[in-house]
Design goal:
CATH architecture: Up-down Bundle
Order of helices and strands: HHHHH
Radius of gyration: 17 Å
Number of helices: 5
CATH topology: Ferritin
Oligomer: single chain
Shape: elongated
CATH superfamily: Ferritin, core subunit, four-helix bundle
Distance between the termini: 48 Å
Number of domains: 1
Largest sheet: none
Number of strands: 0
CATH class: Mainly Alpha
Length: 166
């Protein structure tokens, strides 16, 4: 059976960051990758199932969130591979690694989706901010910059979604 975790050995690369830094940051990126994939799926769950008088606005907003998060998924995975790591994004790995609370599949009304998705966005934003500090401390300002950009967008989407709270 194949393992669902990244190998501890880095792939050869001409990247001049110290291998210890590259490994630590690749592990960090994979942790956030699991959260991002989960967040994308939670956004689509809300998009598909929202109901109520705010349907069209929320339906479209939740899809915008999912599209933005798909971009973060690619950026996180590709940065891990740039550093010589392996991007681990299988459904099994995501289910075992995500730090997001499970999305309640019974949620139907718009207010439940707003609450659940804004909470997931806020939690993801917290983990991304932690990653900024961790990558700066590790000595990788490029990853810190990538995560800073994601953090800005996530804060914006958190605001957009929670602005619909009753």
């Amino acid at each position: 059976m194949a393992t669902q975790t990244a190998s501890s050995a880095l792939h050869p690369t001409k990247n001049t960051l110290d291998p210890g830094i590259r490994q630590a940051v690749a592990d960090l990126l994979n942790a956030r990758l699991a959260d991002a994939i989960d967040l994308q799926l939670q956004s689509k769950q809300a998009h598909w199932n929202v109901k109520g008088p705010n349907f069209i606005g929320l339906h479209e907003l939740f899809d915008q969130v999912a599209e933005a998060v798909q971009k973060y998924v690619d950026e996180l995975a590709e940065r891990a591979v740039m550093l010589g790591g392996v991007a681990v994004g299988t459904s099994q790995a995501v289910a075992g690694r995500t730090t997001l609370a499970p999305y309640p599949v019974e949620a139907q009304d718009w207010s439940s989706h707003v609450e659940c998705l804004s909470a997931a966005l806020a939690h993801f934003g917290d983990r991304i901010r932690e990653g900024i500090e961790q990558s700066e401390t590790a000595g990788d300002p490029v990853t810190a910059d990538l995560l800073t950009g994601i953090s800005h967008d996530v804060d914006k989407f958190t605001w957009f979604v929670e602005a619909h709270q009753a």
